Amino acid sequence: MKPLAETVMQGYAKGEFHIVPDRWNATFEHWMNNIRDWNISRQLWWGHRIPVFTCANGHVWADREDPEKCPKCARTPTQDPDVLDTWFRRGCGPLPTFAGPKTPDLERFLSGHTLVTGPDICSSGSPAC
Ligand SMILES: [Zn+2]
């Protein structure tokens, strides 16, 4: 996440985007300067299972379908038992809805020009939260 945060901060420093209202600038800067990795998975029994498979020989791969055998050694695969984190899943949701990842509808209705969040989901430990 740190390289992504650094890229975001470069754009922020150049004025390519801004925070509204600007009283949240310090919070945004705190988040980006103290970035932490975030799990994409959780150990829950509900949700979208992670489409990553492993065989007994240790081959690991992601697949769109449920494979019957390992593409490298033909052994029976096992799917990762974890599910995608709620926030990660939420970020992926618009892609199948708009037949993404790059379609005119997705560009129009989910351009990313405006991102809205609220202090009720803040978990950074920032004094502003
Ligand atoms: Zn294998």
Q: Can you lay out the helices and strands and say which pair or pack?
A:
Blueprint: H1 2-13, H2 25-33, E1 41-42, E2 52-54, E3 60-62, E4 78-79, E5 83-84, H3 86-92, H4 94-97, H5 104-109
Bound molecules: zinc ion.
Structure notes:
The protein is an alpha+beta fold and 129 residues long. It folds into 3 domains: 1-37, no CATH class; 49-82, no CATH class; 84-129, no CATH class. It is built from 5 helices and 5 strands. It has helices at residues 2-13, 25-33, 86-92, 94-97, 104-109, and strands at 41-42, 52-54, 60-62, 78-79, 83-84. A 3-stranded antiparallel beta sheet has the order 3-2-4, with no helix packed on it. Strand 2 and strand 3 form a beta hairpin. The structure holds zinc ion (ZN). The site of zinc ion has 7 residues, from loops.
Quick structural overview:
The protein is an alpha+beta fold.
Uncertain spans: 124-129
Radius of gyration (CA) equals: 19 Å
Global outline? elongated
Supply the number of structural domains: 3
Structural class: alpha+beta
Amount of beta strand: 5-15%
Instruction: Identify the bound ligands.
Output: zinc ion
Largest sheet: 3 strands, antiparallel
Counting DSSP E segments of at least 2 residues, the number of strands comes to 5
**Measured distance between first and last alpha carbons:** 21 Å
The helicity comes to 25-40%
Helix count from the secondary structure assignment: 5
Order of helices and strands: HHEEEEEHHH
Look at the structure and give the mean pLDDT: 83
